[in-house]
Amino acid sequence: MPDAVMRLWRGDVRGGAFREYRVPTEEGMVVLDVIHKIQATQAHDLAVRWNCKAGKCGSCSAEVNGRPRLMCMTRMNLFAAGEPITVAPIKTFPLIRDLVADVSFNYQVAKTIPAFRPGPGEPDGTFRMMQEDIDRGQEFHKCIECFLCQNVCHVIRDHPDNMPFFAGPRFFVRLAALEMHPMDEAARAEYLRLKAGLGFCNITKCCTEVCPEHIKITDNAIIPLKERVVSEHYDPIVWTWRKLTGRK
Amino acid sequence: MASDKYENHEYDVIVIGAGGAGLRAAIEASAQGVKTALICKSLLGKAHTVMAEGGIAAALGNVWPEDNWKVHFRDTMRGGKLLNNWRMAQLHAQEAPDRVKELEAWGALFDRTKDGRILQRDFGGHRYARLAHVGDRTGLEMIRTLQQHAVHKGIDVFMECTITRLLKDGDRVSGAFGYWRETGRLVVFKAKAVVLATGGIGKAWKFGTNSWECVGDGVALALEAGAELIDMECYQFHPTGMVWPPSVRGILVTEGVRGDGGTLKNALGDRFMFKYIPEFFRAETADTEAEADRWYADKKNNRRTPDLLPRDEVARAINAEVRAGRGSPHGGVFLDIASRRDAEYIKRRLPSMYHQFKELADVDITKEPMEVGPTAHYMNGGVRVDADTEATAVPGLFAAGEVAGGLHGANRLGGNSLSDLVVFGRRAGLYAAEYAKVFKGTPTVDAGQAEALARECLEPFERSGGENPYAIHQDLQECMQTLVGIIRTEGELTKALEEIATLRERCRRIRVDGNRQYNPAWHLALDLQSMLTVSEAVTRAALERKESRGGHAREDYPKMDAELGKVNMAVRKVGEELTVTRERIPEMPPDLKKLLEGDK
Questions:
Q1: Could you tell me what percent of chain B has a pLDDT over 70?
Q2: DSSP B304
Q3: Domain with B310 in it
Q4: Do residue A132 and residue A233 come from a single domain?
Q5: How far apart are CA A73 and CA A54, in angstroms?
Q6: How many domains would you assign to chain B?
Q7: Which residues 101-130 in chain B show a CB within 8 A of chain A?
Q8: pTM, two decimal places
Q9: Do A68 and A61 contact (CB within 8 A), yes or no?
Q10: How confident is the model at residue B2 (pLDDT cuts 50, 70, 90)?
């Protein structure tokens, strides 16, 4: 097999550039394997964030040839042999060093989400829930928090100043999971409308396209949430009730 | 105080590690009203728990009403070849159902039975279908549920922060010293109590299921602080990891494949497990293919398939088939579910496996068999703790989850790990909080101690030697893989000790370039110290146990030895040496003993 030619972003907030490395490859390698090989043999201090190398933890998000991907699930044979492959850190979040970005924004948003609040279950403390009633919730729970959907969402990618007012697709998925949980009783419509900035999303489906877990983010999470906000907030009867009583 | 030179934090309880055990411990400590911090090396929610697949074992009795804690206790003890701490096995079996229900009450969505309760699946060594699960991504569900619960409880989380040493005030623990991965800045945590929940040691081997985090740092922290380890020789090799292509060799293939009907075959197409039923399990294992296949649906009139013998048995059987030349093209055996279950069922029950093989190996598991082989997976032993409180021998230091030993004895049953995390994570958090509440005075950190640790930590930047930490790690993995693998001999183990000593020497000559900001070479240089220590502990204990039991198999002592079945091998650090002593397992009370006799 010909050597892989990798162009990796090296640098920090003060600046940086793509640097080229050549590495021998073997069958079945993924991009993360090649990065590790470079680390072990040529650039010991090359910063890269990873954990499981099995597509389950969502740590190794990067932009490979411009496309947001998990490095551990991107096979080298996806690319023409010997063609240079560019790997850059995910762009929407601030750079720490080399391929590592500061994704703390997401952990801040997570703190603000109204928590799961179940109603009373069975007398023995358990829930009775039918499989068909949790299928959709389970789809959302597949999320591995790789934040590729956040990275690609143009609401914050192109307009970082929206960040304080926008939760992003990952958290719409989380909110949809909570809202559709058969036992949940918390109210989140106002949060969705005012704090999460659901209205910013104009359903271009970029998030759905990059999701490594193939969650139908736009169709199954965001659109139903938008409908919920419309029916709860803009319902004329509810609206009149709010105006008359001053209650939410 | 000179330690104020470093970033300083003070808590009642700090929990090191944010997998299932650490999260559950922090939630419990915080619920007890003490000031709690959670410190983790990765981002929150990325810990190794996220990779757990098959399920969490708990005798809920939803699928088989005959199941109860007593049967679970018996299965766990027999799976561990009776080396287990019986009190831990009892508490674990009794409390696991409540911990599963608690996860559900916190928002976890387990797969359902037809009447809307938590569904349970078959797994190795479990008499009844017992594992609550979410397809084959149960660990993700569990860590996310605990993570979100902890976040909503407002627990302080220190992410990407590595602890290199525990601090002590006299005999007792008084905090921890470490560094921020992002900046390389050093940090001191003062605490009345510390819970270790740092997970395993899998990165000492070449082919394994573990993430980079599993370097045994918690084990080394505990040893250094004066705690003891037990059962380190009984390391678990999971029977089914991927073997091809080379770059993914070792990645876990869940036991759920066999739980859901998959079977192991050799190159001749034989279901070879029928040839490897040990005497110990003969009475409860099917000896014909027909009975084994009937067992999935009718457990009353049939015995369990040998495909679901405990992991140690299956791993050794696969190893033997490959050695005998009946392996698959890439040095494993075949795991076939394609010919036994329909595609729809496979995709619904095992979505991650389907995805993993399709993307990484170009194999469609609904159409072809998988190639699998043993892979380093789990530390059955670990830091010795008190069964009820998870307290170690060091006052103020607690341990729970994979880092703690005792529950699993010589071999862990699949599914007993996730339940271990929440049962004993909760207990560790509870008793650490109680300890902190009655603690008199404030924890003090000796300034000189912090200074010395800082120097030690930064040494790799100062040296002139030319050793590369990645090369040393690779050599250690090679050594452990070939000399301290599934089957061991005295000669190989002795050779391993020599190699480990040489690697230790080389470690003193590691030179790290660049600066402290997110520098993985520096991180690895420090992690190597822990990996070498645990590797030595495993090897020394393995030399001392001159028998084969559970995860520990000796070619030169292939049988179980009744006398050695009555002792744990305890490892301590005395001066600069690791010592191994045989320590008697306390007598089991008659009521528990009776449960073991039962019907076989």
A1: 99
A2: B
A3: 241-374
A4: yes
A5: 7
A6: 2
A7: 101, 104-107, 109, 111-112, 115-118
A8: 0.96
A9: yes
A10: very low
Q: How far, in Å, are A146, B75, B269, B402, B418 from residue B375 at the CA level?
A: 26, 23, 22, 17, 19
Residues 188-247 of A with CB under 8 A from B: none
Q: Let me know: does A137 contact A180? Beta carbons within 8 Å.
A: yes
CB contact under 8 A, B115 and A128: yes
- Residues contacting residue B520 through CB under 8 Å, at least 6 positions apart: A39, A44, A45, A46, A47, A48
Residue in the block written with tokens 């103020």: B396
3-state secondary structure of B274: helix
Provide the token pair at A163: 């960040």
CATH code for the domain of A150:
1.10.1060.10
Residue B247, domain CATH: 3.90.700.10
The answer to whether residue B363 sits within a structural domain is: yes
**Predicted interface score ipTM higher than 0.85:** yes
Structural domain including A95 reads 4-101
The partner residue sitting opposite A27, judged by closest CB among B115, B141, B245, is B245
Is residue B258 part of the annotated active site? The answer reads: yes
Nearest to A131 among B45, B111, B519 (CB): B111
Mean pLDDT of chain B: 96
Q: What percent of chain A has pLDDT over 70?
A: 99
Q: Are residues A73 and A112 in the same domain?
A: no
Interchain proximity A137–B44, CB inside 8 Å = no
Q: Tell me how far apart the alpha carbons of residues B476 and B13 are, in angstroms, rounded to a whole number.
A: 35
Catalytic, B238? Answer yes
> DSSP readout, B452-485?
HHHHHHHHHHH----B-HHHHHHHHHHHHHHHSS
The residues in A 159-188 lying below 8 A from B, measured between CB atoms, are 178, 181, 184
